[in-house]
């Protein structure tokens, strides 16, 4: 059967009208599954059941083992002990990717698994070749992905001929999700943090589509750190902690706080924006960085001012010029940009531009500060070690200073990269949406870290795709299509306001 | 497997050279100590070039210096000419190093200024250097300094002075890599250039320094070789392939980010002893090449994947970056004086 | 909402991707123009045959190099491999065509095996192909210690084939490039190979074997190497294992000039054809221009730098 | 490429001669080209030559590069083409093409089996004999020697090695301790010999092909006495030999870089319609102890001894070849200049 023949859209009749999760058949189950990597026990005996036609939300702190469990459930990796059954059949232990048992289980990965040098259509061929014709597959793949994207993300703007490399992060994520869902029979769709780089619009249409999938009997497993989102979409929520599922409850009746408690932390009022933004009015601070009517390279007449000790936010939908502003401040080569003092950068794309994979946590953490500590180009190791110790403790980096960087989970890697920037003596720290995929507790720690450092006189420019984060800023510039459409300060900064500004503009005068 | 327990691929160079040495000893049943001593008097030249090549290869995927061969030849002429003109060996050696720096400067301009891939940039710089060599060689009259030659041949108690000096140089490179900000920056750039750039490392400066260091070391090797052998337009030819090979067999990660200076000694000794063995047995060039190639492949496939990171299949890895390098011809042709 | 902003991106991205090959194309035509202005006979069929024929084996060897570069590897043995093929062509293929063919098929298999070993033992291709290049050289010297032998008649006939009104060397260049294009850029085999070069994890997650992709790339490279060797033998009328040793570096330069990269994931067969011809023309231009003999290498280097610098300028303009 | 128009008169009826050289990266080839350019310039001003052009294939003796260059030379329609080939076989078809285009082709320095070309070369048998015989005699017909072979796999080397072996077979008391691959290159021979020195007993001589200077360095590195050697014929080696006062059967012998000049005269005579045998064997350059001082003082370090062929001497040598008489002995430097 070909993708083209797939029943799609709302016209498709659900195979069973019954939306009662309890009565549904289990699609995939895991029993007492364990998995260790070297010294890391990623999974310590997981029991989980995913049933047809339900949305199962999976939450847990960074490194809880969610992605690992998903790789086991999708047949990408064998487990050490325990049993995985698919549609009631036990799966042999020596499973390999692409095994027949797992044909109907598909996964959209946390770090997309597209080939950047290939076109979208060619990427589709790779993962969905079984449902494509042998000849003229390119055309079939293009048509299929185009239709699926139109269904899932209206107005996506992806052309199947495009090379993935040329797509924005959000579009890549859309293609990744569409790729996972393009198959002739889909029993289980796993979405590992699908909305982290999507805008709210795209996220909403994704969840609409998830509903039509479940209506046809497909199970959907959703992993996300946006707990509110999970609660609103999922039928059931499973909570993982330290490699095991510690709770499995219907979503109805759960509150965000309940989930946080289950995830294993004393709920420390996560809505509290930390130390109050400094009282000094923006105008009175000495300006340490400034963009004056900058244009070109995706910016149009953008003026941005950063005062000493100020936390300046760059908000708006993803990809509207925020990164370009950061880029200019990072490398102030043009006349319209002035930056006084040294800079440090926290990249959002940690796989590509954050992690130094051969090194340990300590080496990764200190590499920026090393230059400042050194005398005549010679390192001072005692000072470096002390700095590393204090930062590993301060951010509670799991694994410790001597762990290999790639042994850490995504969230902990991100902590190291944030620590790298703040461990330096930089006067201006640039944050490029670094808290994507970081669990709430870590986030809260990092927010207060930022406030403390600002109180000590450092300036921070912070781009975030999560509007709620902007509440921790003194001042926020909202960007759209490369222009500053609003500058909010103090009390004005609120999620609602930012969304209002970014969207109010976007509905009028499209050019 | 964690990073700590990675295999130590540099061992293989030493193991292979010990094996070859034992074979030589078994065949000739004499001069075992002297064999090592003589190998140690040839190895330093290759080690010097290899150290520079290692720094370049460590700078990450795509980085390679294919201009070392023409630089060695050119620096040989320049050093001899400068020594003859000033009467000072030191000036001559410095002139050789300066030549290496000058050619490397062309490469650096092309790599950083014009974003030309290093393999091509250094190839072009090397072509320019070889033209200069030919122009200099036309009617060249100076002769190498006798004092320097005697110094290079000095072997008190069978230990070549040059080998000791280059061992010190190797130790300095080890210290450079682990103790200085430049060394750490180079290793960071080699692991991931974008990440190093975001970590505030002046990538362009680090790369420039690296190519200049490679040029300077090749120039130094050329200055010494010209005194040890004689200046000639093809003085450096063999050193391109061999410098790349010794670096990699020595355990340096071809995709960058990890350098093993000590390993170069093992593989340099291996190459030199292997040449000796082949010549001792009187094998034909065919057999010599088969053996050399076969052994390189054998050691390589035996040592295996220690040279790459943890290969757990499904966790997204850093893209395995391609290794790059280049070569020159392996034979010089058919005319007997070719 | 945002599709309008980005709708303009693809054509420009496309253009930027094609720019390197375009600059090389311009360089190629500029060189032909220079040659023609120095020697008007260049533009006749005979003239084009003369200046193009030497580039035929180079272009095909460069296609082999490109196959490996598309998986992110580099082949430092291609020059000696092509030389070895000429040797086998000039000896075994003449004395007993059946055995000769078997030998050539064996060489392709050896390449595939090399690819498999590189993959399974996870060793850098650079050093493995460097080691293999010594083996090819040794085998070549073993089979034919002194250059010589003769080519089979059918091959010699092809080598001296000179149709009227059409420069014969263009045919193998165009046919080989078209085949590689169909295989590597259009077909599903090419998708596997490029996907492996681009993101092996994605390939594996989709249940495709990275090993197979690499072996296929090496096998195709081996086959192209054999083809290049046959064509070289047809031009030189004999076997000489070191006759193509310069190919190793030049093919890399040809792939880069044609818009390829060391990163892997890209196949640029047409660009490689243009890059190969451009590099082949350099020696023609050098022999037509009155460059002092000592300075010829420098001029060659300068031409390569100039073409690549032109690429940078065009890239800047397009950005 | 280097070319030269003869005094503005255009090519007219005076010939245009091109030289294609397969490799320029060593002193021998450089001397060969320098001698040719000097002689051709002289011939031009003497009105014997209209125009000449020298093209060196870049890189490492690449036959494919040279084929491409000869093809582009064909476009320029020279009257005669001189070739120092990078490969004894690979140029066969392109030489045939040149002959078909009516161009006189003279290949020198290496045999090539292209029936239409004229070949001018030194006898490799003579070379090997001149290298080994005096040396064997010098060590008194007995002792231990190392044989340093040339570019193994090349035709000349096969012939030379055969000759060497014949001579050694005739002297059974001379033992071969090792056979190394010196590639006729001092630097390579130096390393190769050094590699075996510790493993062989006392060495009385090294039979090589013009690599004695490097071999001497190897012995001095190893701290061993310098045995009888086969030196190259360049200024560096001859001066070393002269200065070190070695008188132990050492010789200096190599082929003659002046062949290019002889080939020039041959081409001019061929274009004049003179009858010249297809194959000419010219004398090698042998520097004997008695002429050592003269040669040593006349040569720069990297310059190789070359016979100063004039048109006259060339014609005499052709006669000698035709009649089978004794080869012409061109003047050695002290007598010539
Ligand atoms: N391939 C691997 N090699 C070594 N350790 C691994 C590997 N994959 C996962 N781990 C470890 O297993 C644990 C679980 O990781 P996993 O990626 O499943 O966490 P997660 O819940 O997805 O976290 P996050 O929310 O940060 O993505 C972590 O401690 C991680 O370091
Ligand atoms: N064109 C090809 N290029 C490279 N490898 C191939 C090719 N065709 C098949 N293979 C090899 O055969 C294996 C099966 O691949 P194939 O694409 O046929 O899987 P499939 O047909 O989609 O799966 P199945 O038929 O088992 O359901 C691959 O893993 C690969 O090793
Ligand atoms: Mg995860
Ligand atoms: Mg996560």
Automatic annotation (TrEMBL), chain A:
SUPFAM superfamilies: P-loop containing nucleoside triphosphate hydrolases. It comes from Micromonospora orduensis. It comes from the Bacteria. Residues 1-25 are annotated as: Disordered. Residues 28-267, 282-506 form the ABC transporter domain. CDD domains: ABC_Carb_Monos_I. It holds the Pfam family ABC_tran. Gene3D superfamilies: P-loop containing nucleotide triphosphate hydrolases. This is Sugar ABC transporter ATP-binding protein. GO terms for molecular function: ATP binding; ATP hydrolysis activity. Keywords: ATP-binding, Nucleotide-binding, Repeat, Transport.
UniProtKB/TrEMBL annotation, chain B:
GO terms for molecular function: transmembrane transporter activity. Residues 307-338 are annotated as: Disordered. It comes from Micromonospora orduensis. It comes from the Bacteria. Residues 322-332 have a biased composition (Low complexity). It is found in: Cell membrane. GO terms for cellular component: plasma membrane. This is ABC transporter permease. PANTHER family: ABC TRANSPORTER PERMEASE PROTEIN YPHD-RELATED-RELATED. The keyword Zinc does not apply. Keywords: Cell membrane, Membrane, Transmembrane, Transmembrane helix. It is a multi-pass membrane protein. Pfam families: BPD_transp_2. The keyword Cell membrane applies.
TrEMBL record, chain C:
GO terms for molecular function: transmembrane transporter activity. It is found in: Cell membrane. InterPro entries: ABC_transp_permease. GO terms for cellular component: plasma membrane. It is a multi-pass membrane protein. Pfam families: BPD_transp_2. Keywords: Cell membrane, Membrane, Transmembrane, Transmembrane helix. Its main location: membrane. The chain crosses the membrane at residues 21-39, 45-64, 76-94, 100-118, 125-144, 164-184, 211-232, 244-262, 269-289, 295-314. Coiled coil: none annotated. PANTHER family: ABC TRANSPORTER PERMEASE PROTEIN YPHD-RELATED-RELATED. This is ABC transporter permease. It comes from Micromonospora orduensis.
């Amino acid at each position: 059967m070909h993708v083209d023949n797939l029943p799609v859209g709302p016209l498709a009749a659900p195979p069973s009208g019954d939306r009662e999760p309890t009565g549904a058949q289990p699609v995939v189950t895991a029993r007492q599954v364990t998995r260790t990597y070297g010294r890391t026990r990623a999974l310590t005996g997981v029991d989980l059941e995913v049933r047809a036609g339900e949305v199962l939300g999976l939450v847990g702190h960074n490194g809880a083992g969610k992605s690992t469990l998903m790789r086991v459930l999708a047949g990408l990796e064998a487990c050490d002990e325990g049993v995985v059954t698919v549609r009631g059949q036990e799966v042999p232990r020596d499973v390999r990717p692409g095994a027949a048992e797992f044909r109907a289980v598909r996964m959209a990965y946390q770090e997309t698994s597209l080939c950047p040098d290939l076109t979208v259509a060619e990427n589709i061929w790779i993962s969905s070749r079984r449902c494509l014709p042998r000849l003229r597959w390119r055309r079939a793949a293009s048509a299929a992905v185009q239709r699926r994207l139109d269904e899932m993300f209206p107005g996506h703007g992806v052309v199947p001929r495009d090379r993935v490399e040329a797509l924005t992060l959000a579009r890549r994520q859309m293609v990744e999700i569409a790729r996972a869902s393009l198959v002739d029979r889909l029993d289980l769709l796993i979405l590992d943090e699908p909305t982290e780089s999507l805008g709210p619009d795209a996220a909403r249409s994704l969840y609409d589509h998830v509903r039509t999938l479940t209506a046809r009997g497909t199970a959907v497993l959703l992993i996300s750190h946006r707990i509110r989102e999970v609660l609103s979409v999922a039928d059931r929520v499973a909570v993982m902690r330290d490699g095991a599922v510690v709770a499995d409850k219907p979503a109805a009746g759960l509150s965000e706080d309940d989930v946080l408690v289950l995830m294993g932390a004393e709920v420390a009022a996560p809505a509290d924006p930390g130390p109050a933004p400094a009282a000094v009015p923006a105008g009175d601070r000495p300006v340490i960085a400034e963009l004056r009517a900058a244009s070109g390279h995706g910016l149009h007449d953008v003026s941005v001012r950063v005062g000493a000790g100020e936390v300046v936010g760059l908000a708006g939908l993803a990809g509207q010029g925020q990164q370009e502003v950061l880029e200019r401040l990072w490398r102030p080569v043009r006349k319209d940009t002035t930056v006084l003092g040294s800079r440090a950068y926290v990249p959002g794309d940690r796989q590509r531009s954050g992690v130094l994979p051969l090194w340990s946590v300590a080496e990764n953490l200190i590499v920026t500060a090393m230059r400042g500590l050194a005398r005549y180009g010679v390192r001072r190791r005692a000072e470096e070690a002390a700095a590393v110790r204090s930062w590993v403790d301060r951010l509670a980096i799991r694994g410790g200073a001597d762990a290999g960087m790639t042994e850490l989970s995504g969230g902990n890697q991100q902590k190291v990269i944030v620590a790298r920037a703040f461990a330096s003596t930089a006067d201006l720290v640039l944050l490029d949406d670094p808290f994507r995929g970081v669990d709430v507790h870590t986030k809260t720690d990092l927010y207060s870290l930022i406030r403390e450092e600002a109180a000590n006189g450092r300036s921070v420019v912070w781009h975030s795709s999560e509007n709620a984060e902007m509440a921790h800023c003194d001042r926020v510039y909202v960007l759209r299509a490369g222009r500053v459409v609003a500058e909010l300060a103090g009390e004005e900064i609120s999620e609602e306001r930012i969304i209002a500004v970014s969207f109010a503009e976007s509905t009028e005068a499209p050019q | 497997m964690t990073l700590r327990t990675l295999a130590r691929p540099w061992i293989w160079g030493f193991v292979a050279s010990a094996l070859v040495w034992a074979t030589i000893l078994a065949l000739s049943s004499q001069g075992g100590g002297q064999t090592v001593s003589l190998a140690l008097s040839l190895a330093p030249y290759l080690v010097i070039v290899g150290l520079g090549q290692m720094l370049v290869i460590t700078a990450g995927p795509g980085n390679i210096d294919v201009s070392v061969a023409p630089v060695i030849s050119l620096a040989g002429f320049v050093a001899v000419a400068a020594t003859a003109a000033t009467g000072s060996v030191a000036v001559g050696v410095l002139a050789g190093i300066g030549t290496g720096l000058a050619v490397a400067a062309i490469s650096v301009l092309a790599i950083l200024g014009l974003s030309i891939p290093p393999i091509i940039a250094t190839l072009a710089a090397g072509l320019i250097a070889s033209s200069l060599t030919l122009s200099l060689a036309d009617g060249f009259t100076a002769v190498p300094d006798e004092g320097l030659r005697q110094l290079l041949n000095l072997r008190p108690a069978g230990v070549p002075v040059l080998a000791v000096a280059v061992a010190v140089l190797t130790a300095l490179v080890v210290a450079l890599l682990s103790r200085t900000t430049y060394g750490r920056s180079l290793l960071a750039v080699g692991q991931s250039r974008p990440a190093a750039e975001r970590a505030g490392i002046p990538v362009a400066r680090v790369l420039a320094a690296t190519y200049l260091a490679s040029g300077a070391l090749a120039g130094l090797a050329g200055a010494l070789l010209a005194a040890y052998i004689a200046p000639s337009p093809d003085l450096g030819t063999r050193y391109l392939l061999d410098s790349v090979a010794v670096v990699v067999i020595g355990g340096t990660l071809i995709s960058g980010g990890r350098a093993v200076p000590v390993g170069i000694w093992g593989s340099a000794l291996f190459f030199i002893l292997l040449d000796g063995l082949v010549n001792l047995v009187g094998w034909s060039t065919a057999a010599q090449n088969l053996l050399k190639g076969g052994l390189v492949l054998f050691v390589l496939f035996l040592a295996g994947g220690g040279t790459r990171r943890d290969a757990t299949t499904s966790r997204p890895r850093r893209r395995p970056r391609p290794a790059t390098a280049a070569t020159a011809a392996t034979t010089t042709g058919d005319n007997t004086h070719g | 909402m945002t599709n309008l902003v980005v709708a303009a991106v693809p054509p420009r991205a496309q253009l930027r991707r094609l720019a390197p090959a375009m600059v090389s194309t311009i360089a190629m035509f500029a060189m032909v123009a220079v040659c023609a202005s120095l020697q008007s006979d260049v533009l006749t069929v005979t003239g084009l045959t003369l200046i193009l024929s030497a580039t035929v084996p180079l272009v095909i060897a460069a296609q082999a190099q490109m196959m490996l570069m598309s998986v992110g590897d580099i082949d430092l043995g291609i020059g000696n491999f092509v030389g070895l093929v000429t040797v086998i062509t000039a000896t075994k293929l003449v004395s007993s065509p059946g055995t000769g063919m078997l030998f050539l098929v064996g060489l392709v298999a050896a390449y595939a095996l090399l690819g498999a070993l590189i993959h399974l033992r996870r060793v850098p291709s650079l050093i493995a192909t460097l080691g293999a290049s010594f083996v090819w050289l040794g085998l070549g010297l073993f089979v034919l210690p002194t250059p010589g032998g003769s080519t089979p008649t059918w091959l010699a006939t092809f080598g001296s084939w000179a149709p009227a009104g059409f420069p014969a060397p263009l045919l193998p260049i165009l046919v080989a490039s078209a085949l590689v294009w169909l295989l590597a850029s259009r077909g599903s085999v090419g998708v596997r190979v490029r996907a492996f070069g681009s993101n092996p994890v994605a390939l594996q997650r989709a249940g495709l074997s990275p090993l197979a992709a690499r072996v296929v790339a090496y096998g195709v490279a081996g086959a192209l190497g054999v083809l290049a060797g046959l064509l070289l033998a047809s031009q030189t009328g004999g076997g000489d294992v070191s006759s193509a040793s310069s190919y190793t570096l030049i093919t890399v330069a040809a792939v880069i000039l044609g818009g390829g990269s060391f990163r892997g994931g890209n196949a640029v067969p047409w660009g490689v054809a243009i890059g190969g011809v451009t590099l082949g023309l350099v020696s023609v231009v050098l022999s037509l221009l009155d460059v002092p003999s000592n300075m010829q290498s420098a001029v060659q280097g300068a031409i390569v730098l100039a073409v690549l610098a032109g690429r940078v300028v065009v890239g800047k303009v397009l950005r | 490429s280097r070319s030269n128009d003869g005094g503005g008169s255009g090519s007219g009826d005076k010939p245009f001669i091109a030289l294609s050289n397969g490799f320029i990266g060593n002193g021998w080839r450089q001397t060969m080209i320098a001698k040719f350019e000097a002689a051709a310039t002289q011939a031009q001003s003497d009105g014997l030559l209209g125009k000449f052009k020298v093209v060196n294939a870049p890189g490492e003796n690449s036959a494919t590069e040279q084929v491409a260059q000869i093809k582009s030379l064909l476009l320029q329609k020279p009257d005669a083409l001189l070739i120092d080939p990078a490969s004894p076989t690979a140029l066969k078809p392109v030489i045939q093409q040149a002959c078909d285009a009516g161009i006189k082709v003279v290949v020198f320095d290496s045999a090539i089996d292209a029936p239409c070309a004229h070949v001018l070369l030194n006898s490799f048998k003579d070379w090997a004999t001149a290298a080994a015989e005096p040396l064997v005699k010098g060590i008194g017909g007995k002792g231990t020697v190392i044989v340093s072979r040339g570019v193994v796999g090349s035709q000349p080397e096969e012939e030379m090695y055969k000759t060497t072996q014949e001579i050694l077979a005739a002297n059974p008391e001379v033992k071969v301790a090792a056979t190394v691959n010196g590639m006729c290159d001092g630097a390579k021979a130096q390393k190769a010999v050094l590699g075996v020195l510790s493993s062989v007993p006392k060495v009385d001589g090294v039979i090589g092909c013009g690599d004695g200077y490097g071999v001497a360095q190897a012995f001095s590195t190893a701290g061993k006495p310098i045995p009888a050697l086969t030196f190259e014929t360049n200024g560096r080696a001859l001066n070393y030999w002269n200065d070190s006062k070695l008188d132990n059967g050492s010789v200096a012998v190599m082929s003659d870089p002046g062949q290019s000049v002889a080939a020039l005269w041959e081409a001019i005579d061929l274009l004049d319609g003179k009858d010249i045998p297809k194959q000419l064997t010219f004398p090698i350059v042998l520097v004997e102890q008695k002429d050592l001082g003269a040669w040593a003082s006349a040569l720069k370090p990297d310059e190789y001894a070359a016979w100063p062929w004039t048109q006259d001497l060339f014609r005499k040598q052709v006669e000698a070849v035709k009649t089978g008489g004794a080869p012409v002995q061109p003047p050695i430097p002290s007598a010539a200049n």
